[in-house]
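Work Package 3 (structural annotation) set out to generate three-dimensional models for the target panel prioritized at the project kickoff. During this period the team completed the workflow that converts sequence records into discrete structure tokens, so that structures can be stored uniformly alongside our sequence database. As a representative example, we reproduce one entry of 475 residues exactly as it appears in the project archive.
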Amino acid sequence: MKDLGIYIHIPFCVKKCRYCDFLSFNKDDNMKKAYIEALKKEIQLYSVDNSEGVSSIYIGGGTPSCVDGIYIEEILNEVRTHFNVLEDVEITIEVNPGTVTKDKVSAYKRVGINRISIGLQSTHNDELKMLGRIHNYEEFLETYRMFRAESFDNISVDVMSAIPNQTVESYRETLNRIIQLKPEHISSYSLIIEENTPFYKEQDSLKLVDEDTERQMYYMTKEILENSGYKRYEISNYAMEGKESRHNNRYWDVTKSYLGLGLGASSYVINMVDTKENYTINTGQNNIQYNKINNVFSSKYKIKNIFIELMDDSIVAKRFNKINNINEYIAILNSQEDILSGAKRGSVSLRQKLECDVDLITFSMLKEEYMFLGLRRIEGVSISKFEKLHNIISSYAKEFNTKDESTITSYKGENISCDNEENTLFKESNMYNTYGTVIDKYINMGLLVVEGDRMYLSDEGIDVCNTIFVDFINE
């Protein structure tokens, strides 16, 4: 893998919030310890195929700060032992006020965590109580100050709008209080009532914010934060210069892989798994074995002079989740005594048992995702990078041969330059040839903008982004 990101799921929390539909629950210390031990084995299990540099690690939940700091140290030390973690890696941990101690803060600093994401939601205690949060605003301030006292210089704070009974003025006050603290990053989300949550069952009795008020809060967020020095880089995320979340950006870039470890964790892995007629493979000798279970070319075979031609239905990546039953998860990982030895022998049976909801991504699907995921970012998508997608994805074939250099022919598409004011070459690009009808439609409506090498949503386009995204999928 190239430039790998790792997500680590800690499913435990003190109490589930009334709006939360994430995989989280409260368990005793024995179960927490058993889970951490199993998680460390899973880290070993997935380490064998991943020699490229890890540039971001994100520990989420749940509430990772509700487990002892020593467990977080053990997890990250295990990752460093079995993966190639880069020196400048971004390591984020989610924490909730009411679960953070000075000892935990010191442990995070000691193990190299350099980015903190604090779940606040509101500075008003009545709104926090409505959400079912376990803390008050004063506890948040105490938590924030603890991290600053340990010289953490990259802190993100989560805030929420459209909370039941919330007013425009109370939300404005939340934003103003937070920007006075000057965190480096602010994530702002509007409450969504999800199924299987207390709020979903109670929504008829809740005083929900009306649509006009919600839109007013949305526009106010952008105005206040941008006027305070925060740059919006994704629909829900704002950052000071140079403090955008590296890991967050990874989720909107289909040319970057991320590996999810832990209960229910999601992964997206570019791995070039197709060997149908859609690939033209010429090695000069019949020495390639395809392992359908492992979804990779067997590394024990030497592959030389590979020519790969990607078609739209070529499978180039896969998404998958991990199982969400904690007892089953622990049992599977405890069923093999020497995980690492088994993994090195090519054993994939444990992975098969852990992985579920596997979705194979074709090159055509990847191009769609490049558009609608990339357009979530304020900078939008790069027209020239779309031209190079074939080469970028094909280059992953090199990972199938770790000892002998492979030669992959260059994609013979035109290198379209889109740096002139009139964008006259844009209509000759692969992006326009593929999605021209949708692009013209939304440019004419003032919802899409082409500027130089970028295509991005206008402010009005961001408001109706989901409608636009659907059109790129259906094109």
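Residues 273-307, 398-422 have pLDDT under 50 and may be disordered.
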